[in-house]
Amino acid sequence: MSRTVGSFGPKTLETIRKAGLRLIFEHGYEAMSLRQLAAEVGIRPSSLYNYMHTKQDLLFSLIEMHMQELLDQVDAALTGVVEPAERLAAFVAFHVRYHMVRKSEVSVVNFELRSLDVEHYATVVEMRKRYESRLSDIIEDGIKQGAFAPLDVSVATFAILAMLTGVCSWYRPDGRLSEAEIIDAHIGMALRSLGASIIAR
Amino acid sequence: MSRTVGSFGPKTLETIRKAGLRLIFEHGYEAMSLRQLAAEVGIRPSSLYNYMHTKQDLLFSLIEMHMQELLDQVDAALTGVVEPAERLAAFVAFHVRYHMVRKSEVSVVNFELRSLDVEHYATVVEMRKRYESRLSDIIEDGIKQGAFAPLDVSVATFAILAMLTGVCSWYRPDGRLSEAEIIDAHIGMALRSLGASIIAR
Amino acid sequence: MSRTVGSFGPKTLETIRKAGLRLIFEHGYEAMSLRQLAAEVGIRPSSLYNYMHTKQDLLFSLIEMHMQELLDQVDAALTGVVEPAERLAAFVAFHVRYHMVRKSEVSVVNFELRSLDVEHYATVVEMRKRYESRLSDIIEDGIKQGAFAPLDVSVATFAILAMLTGVCSWYRPDGRLSEAEIIDAHIGMALRSLGASIIAR
Amino acid sequence: MSRTVGSFGPKTLETIRKAGLRLIFEHGYEAMSLRQLAAEVGIRPSSLYNYMHTKQDLLFSLIEMHMQELLDQVDAALTGVVEPAERLAAFVAFHVRYHMVRKSEVSVVNFELRSLDVEHYATVVEMRKRYESRLSDIIEDGIKQGAFAPLDVSVATFAILAMLTGVCSWYRPDGRLSEAEIIDAHIGMALRSLGASIIAR
DNA sequence: TATGAATGAGGCTTCATTCAT
DNA sequence: AATGAATGAAGCCTCATTCAT
Questions:
Q1: Is residue C36 part of a domain?
Q2: For the segment D163-196, what is each residue's pLDDT rounded down to a tens digit?
């Protein structure tokens, strides 16, 4: 409810995106009204249209922006890591940390896809597939190289992604465990689930 | 003025629930309109109120009914199974199968909680905690008995639940793998992730 | 809210009328719903139609019945009283007492006329005129006989009626003054307002 | 899509208030629909909400505004008048004239109080009490000074107010009597009812 | 006599959006 | 860049009423 009064010109777009993300995260896209959003930003509803085309476009741009960031960052996180088990650990560490730190963004991306219209939906699903392939490639390589047990790559990919992503539905910064402990626990479970011997880190 | 042919009294409630569940699954609770629902059922919007109090009550009753069924069935599935690894396998088998077969129900339960008002929300969260405790009890016992590696029960519970539940976001009855194959794959991953030796089944 | 459970057959009509009167008094005719009424009576809305034709008819029958009673009783109260001042006092005493004791009925009659459709409205207005003529006749006679000051009969009639009727908007049985005290006060004011010398009673 | 000709911004609020007052006067608050009101104003129902928060708020603001005007004007009318009988005459003259000229406003204030929600109701009742005290103060002073007969102040206040207010339920500008005649008649009756000797004016 | 089920009409209100200023 | 005013569409829900059982 904290109205950001006095945000002029160039900063306003950023304010709208931040408030929009939070409101969608809290109430859902359908349940968030542009009245609410405008009130949070400290402008009138009609003024929003100086910064966006439609409500739907706002949602899409938020989702796309964060999918792109996810893709960029995962590649950075994997750069220079070669061994399958190491790469898996790196992926897990990155994914879990990202899902703890960027909880809202990630939740919006995951929950509000169905509110996208067909074309926007297709675009995002394609990006998601690209992201998933980062993990499935690691698993496939690991199996080929004998580092992981011979299991169905597809199922394993979905299962591990779901396991890791789950963290954003319960993690709280002031919780009992530290970020590092949570990440390590997930690395352990992911590696073991693939039949890998735990690596020293 | 006369009764519309094709929808008789006693069956109508069931029709409403089925259609409501499907529409909420497809569009989300906020996005589903009672006009839509009534049209699907073949009655007028105002007639819905002969079967429900409010839209919110419809959502709650759907969610509660399916949470109760989940609780009843998990207990039945675990009855008579004693060894931790066996119990875990039984839980995984039940949970995954339920989430493949009852995909819509389960998705609605998981995604639409935020649309419940405070009291209804509290009721359902309590039921969900009861369900989660079935798994965490198994993991806790397994660790105590040395069947599983010594890991954080809470994290492990959430991680495995998320992994298993994920199946309902991609499973399709006409997919490449059979139900049994998918279930076995998840049993394997879950057991390994806990550091259990794979059991013979 | 006290549901009168178990009112069978012949008594039900009376129960409906009583509850209807009270509800219209409390909420107004437009604001009272037949759902409410049925609930108070302990039957289903559709069952009301075994006892009345429409909601409008219920209102009319209540109003008409009580107008008729008012007419009957005022004539009884004036029977045998001859002197204008005495007749005025008798009228005032009757009118004020009736408006204290039958507060709800009288308020409904006075406030809900506008909710009657044209024909019903005309009927009731005619009855009301008949009632008013009881007072205006007394005033007219009193002026002719020199018992009252020479003033406009019409204005005096309306003014005194309004004054007396006002009692039902503030009287409470547990109030500071007794019925008799209130009645006497009004007799005094009415007589004086017409320039009559106060009579001994 | 373009602006409907014939109703410009700044005047619309006033138009809404006037039409709203008239419709509530004619049909009652509950019976007046916002569709009706919008149609009278020449805008669409949803446009009403650019000028009011809710239907209830419209009612309250109309009532409050007119109660405030009544309070302001009565004080002006009594300014500089000192003798109790003179003050009473001034009060009667003001009240009757106001109730003849502002018939609709006054009727809405008197009849629609019950449609106000609790808080709004309390506010208005308090204002009404303040208004009534103008009259009761006059009566009380008159009795103390021996200008009026010793009677119950409360009853006399209610009785005279009711008598005077009654005028708005029958007065018609094209009636037999002039405003002045009606006012004089009421002054006479009010003074006499309190046992005052008629003053020369 | 009672009622479950159905309904057309309509209740108030919110919505995203447009456009002239 | 901002907004007041307007709007069509639609939201959930209540209403009085009907009628077959």
A1: yes
A2: 999 999 999 999 999 999 999 999 999 999 999 9
